[in-house]
Specification:
The protein is α+β, with helices and mostly antiparallel strands. Helix content is 56%, strand content 14%. 17% of the residues are buried.
């Protein structure tokens, strides 16, 4: 009986189909939107005992380690500067945060928590720790860490790609597809 020869290896892995990639993008976007909704709801529950909203807790949390300008907070959180400005002004008005001079920029003041703001965040910590523990138990610590790494890579990839094209490459029928609101392309079929 002749010896079997080496198994031929394709020169490169087959390219994923355009349709499969669009499906993956749509599923990812919908999953992230749903996850964002769940995180917002959980954040509201965690912030409530401290007399905060999720938005106020998130902005305060962003400046716990170091004071930041509003634009810096917005970049870290991935939201608009105007949204952060509105929340930061409310925190300052309620005595939970204060604006201090920014040595690097005369006009863009830094936001930092007051002692009252730090105390409010401290009241959130037990619920936050309990949720983190429950998630780690449910997912497994390594899978939880891999989820974080995957989301960070996805975010970095989207940042690197820049804004999406309005009209993508032709579909299998040769006609360009219009982009829907979820990152998938509508084919009209």
């Amino acid at each position: 009986m002749p010896e079997p020869g080496p198994v031929p290896v394709p020169a490169s892995a087959p390219e994923p189909s355009v349709r499969a990639c669009r499906d993956l993008l749509s599923r990812t976007a919908l999953g992230v939107f749903r996850l964002n909704g769940r995180f917002l709801a959980v954040s509201e529950e965690l912030a409530r005992p401290a007399g905060l909203t999720a938005a106020r807790g998130q902005v305060l949390g962003a400046v716990l380690r170091e004071p930041l300008p509003v634009a810096g907070i917005a970049r870290v959180m991935g939201i608009t500067r105007q949204s952060v400005q509105r929340v930061a002004d409310l925190l300052a008005a309620d005595g939970l945060a204060e604006y201090v001079p920014n040595p690097a920029h005369r006009r863009a003041k830094l936001l930092r928590p007051t002692e009252e703001g730090r105390a409010a965040i401290t009241r959130i910590a037990p619920g936050h720790a309990a949720l983190a523990g429950r998630l780690a138990e449910e997912l497994g610590e390594e899978a939880f860490a891999e989820t974080v790494r995957t989301l960070e890579r996805l975010s970095a990839a989207l940042d690197a790609l820049g804004p999406p094209d309005v009209v993508g490459p032709p579909d299998v029928d040769g006609a360009p597809d219009a982009v829907d609101g979820l990152g998938a392309r509508e084919t009209g079929r």
